[in-house]
Design a protein that fits this description.
This protein has about 120 residues and is mainly alpha-helical. It contains five helices and two strands; from the N terminus they run H-H-H-E-E-H-H.
Amino acid sequence: MSFLSDLFEGVVIVAEFEKKSAVDALKESIAVATHLKPEHHAAIEAARALARRVDDLDANDWIVGGKLDNVSMPTYLRSLQLLGLMPSTPAAGAKGKPRNDLEEWKQRARSGGAD
């Protein structure tokens, strides 16, 4: 058995996804995102540039100029989060019920009502 099969032994895969480039996956996500509006255009273009970078890095084992690039992927993921394209995280600026006391305090502090 391989390391991955050992790691995922007993894990039930709920959905399977075809491997796509970051550019194609972003294109698909944008196409189905009904919340995006024309004012998101600049952020979408930034995400597209990052997706191209991620694809290039993936093809080159994440090495650029002899150095490991460990910045582009987190930056790309953050751009997806800010565009509301990551289902596990709310869109930037989304107001929801605080998850815990600390989140509630932070929310009150941002609105000027922290005690």
